[in-house]
Design a protein that fits this description.
By secondary structure, this protein is α+β, with helices and mostly antiparallel strands. The chain is built from 2 helices and 10 strands.
Length: about 140
């Protein structure tokens, strides 16, 4: 009975995922943004905070291409800059307030060459994620 359930589980993974390989989906390499509480900033004082994106279940994070998008509002005077997989927020906030925004992360996985099919293949089931953040300026 256990063998039958295990077989059904793996067959359902094959059917319901768009992955080329079962192993790729079971390992579940995926982009990940950290849970982050940003430091509280103060109006007319220099603000700085940062975080680093990563690939869950892959120690070779630096082999991926990272693309970030911001949706929402940052404090006036604070800008977001990207340094590969590090996202920095820096500047001099002009106004007090609570600023909510979402960061979207899209990754380009490293391609591996399959000599049998003579094609390049990626190694991920999920290549994007997003997370909501808040910066408070007092």
């Amino acid at each position: 009975m256990k063998n039958t359930l295990s077989l059904l589980f793996f067959l359902s993974i094959i059917i319901f995922t768009g992955c080329e390989s079962i192993l790729e989906c079971v390992i579940n390499r995926s982009p990940e943004l950290p849970d982050k509480s940003f430091t509280v900033g103060y109006r007319q004082q220099m603000y700085y905070d940062e975080f680093e994106a990563q690939i869950k279940n892959d120690p070779h994070d630096d082999s991926y291409g990272y693309n970030f998008e911001l949706e929402g509002t940052l404090p006036e005077g604070v800008s977001m800059t990207i340094d590969y997989r590090i996202v920095r927020f820096e500047g001099m906030p002009q106004n007090q307030g609570i600023y909510d925004f979402t960061i979207f992360l899209y990754v380009d996985p490293p391609l591996s060459y399959d000599e049998e099919t003579e094609d390049y293949e990626d190694s991920m089931c999920i290549t994007s994620t997003s997370k909501n953040y808040t910066i408070i300026i007092e």
